[in-house]
Sequence to fold (293 residues):
Amino acid sequence: MATETWTHGFATTNGIRLHYVEQGQGPLLLLLHGFPVFWYSWRHQIPVLAQHFHVVAPDLRGFNDSDKPEGVDQYQLHHLVEDVGGLLRFFGQEKVIVVGHDAGAFAAWAFAATYPEATERLIACANGHPGVLQKFASQGYAEHAAALRRMFYIFFHLVPEVPERFYRKYNYAFFDDWRRNHPERFTAEDIAEYKKALAKPGALTAGLNYYRALLPPEVLVGEVPLLSEKVRCPTLLIVGENSHIASPAATEWSREFVEAPFTLRVVPKAGHWVQLEQPELVNQHLLEFLADV
Fold:
């Protein structure tokens, strides 16, 4: 594991116990990861941001050392929002800078929209506002079909039992692909840490339940939005230029859901895992956006 400059702890929030790491002093800044990783996906950001902020990177419910409540409904968006709110109360703060990636970005967007008075800044990595999913459906067959094709892996994750059996059978081999594609960014030790976390009892199904809870058929086909409320705080969206899910239209449409200054940064030579593939550039964008906080 990367050299630890942070400390570990546990917080009881929203009826469950969340593991977290923290470092630094100052305004509270939360780093919310996505699937299939855990707090460790922010290892390049934590010590840099901790020079200016009290950085807390939790394992979201279901992941690594946090509680793993059973049932798909336990991973609905409102539970994720209340988990974040509980972390604010646990740390005795009324305001937070919330940063999210992947499923963590969905939680970050939703928290900022639900609790505008508590959100000082919002930063989303890779994933635009969840309402963009319904925007695709409004563009007609060709645009919507193209968007769904880019999200092919989601349909696999929605199938009961199959992804769990497949991933376990091959010892979570998709992590090995990360190292083959980016050997300069992922060490063998990093891959071992990701596999170890996902192999913990209940973690894989819990992580897949995020897809099953957040992206049911009515959301994927645009009949209802996952989130329609707008964000009213300064917002930064960071996407990799090679992301297979963040099309130029999707990133621009996120502006429509922000009633405050909106900044978009496209990171070259990066895909979905932008904070891991180009950590130096992402850190630069984060610090520039937060310079006046």
Observations:
- The chain has a mean pLDDT of 95.
- The chain has one domain: 7-289.
